[in-house]
Amino acid sequence: MRIAEIYRSVQGEGLLTGVPSVFVRASGCNLRCWFCDTPYTSWRPEGRDMSTDEIVAQVEEWDTRHVVVTGGEPMLFAELIPLCHRLRAIGRHVTIETAGTLYLPVACDLMSISPKFASSAPPANAEPHWHRRHVRERHRPDVIRRLVTEFDYQVKFVVDTPTDLEEMNRYLAELTEIARDRVLLMPQGVDQQQLDERALWLRPYCETQGLIFCPRKQIEWFGPVRGT
Ligand code: SF4
Q1: CA-to-CA distance for 120 and 102, rounded, in angstroms?
Q2: Shortest CA distance to 111 belongs to which of 68, 152, 157?
Q3: pLDDT digits (tens, 9 = 90+) for 172-219
Q4: 6, 37, 50, 214: which sits with the fewest CB atoms below 10 Å from its CB?
């Protein structure tokens, strides 16, 4: 499994915000969102192939119960199956961060699904191959339905403009298995100013719609710094 980085930090997003966690970041993604905040796992994938033994040994260097396997797209790697089994066998709580386009029969405690909107596709003129692939692969209701049925889950939408909210509502209308109190809306942005601008309209929207506004605390705490 190609790994870009393994580090200990604090979960900055979602239902487990504030929980100390070890992050195992897989490198490689089947999508190429234009705003990707980890381009070193998508547009320019870095890292090296690590065995399950190596990854588990590195995780065990920290006495930290929560492990977040993220990416990139960790569901691209079949080795995720033995990795999750091993992590749970040593008593770790496992969160998987995925865009919800691929399914694997993993063992995990929280499936954190972040479906991508049409607006996240890279521009067709500059990136025609990845634009076509993004359009083809990003929306997999069959996969998301299976994930939310089989796992404890949260669904995190990254919202860039109010137009995205129309698509988010179409998602929820199509996928009636998703409970509204498991839906979190996060502003798109790579710095605090961008996040604050979008929070101005997104937070009130969440309050009126019974959805959870989800700040990206890691940017507030650490800034747009890799490995934090
Ligand atoms: S799905 Fe996630 S990791 Fe992949 S390109 Fe989009 S934002 Fe980046």
Answers
A1: 18
A2: 152
A3: 999 999 999 999 999 988 888 999 999 999 999 999 999 999 988 777
A4: 37
C-beta of residue 148 within 8 angstroms of C-beta of residue 155:
yes
Mean of all residue pLDDT scores within the chain: 95
CB within 8 A of 202, min separation 6: which ones?
159, 185, 187, 213
CA distance 135 to 117: 9
Q: Where are the domains of the chain?
A: 2-222
Residue whose CB lies within 8 A of the most ligand 1 atoms, among 2, 23, 31, for a mutation test: 31
**CB within 8 A of 14, min separation 6: which ones?**
112, 154, 156, 184, 214
Say which CATH architecture domain 2-222 belongs to: Alpha-Beta Barrel (3.20)
Beta strands 20-26 and 48-49 are unpaired
The answer, yes or no, to whether any atom of ligand 1 lies below 6 A from the CB of 74, is: no
Predicted TM-score (pTM) of this structure:
0.94
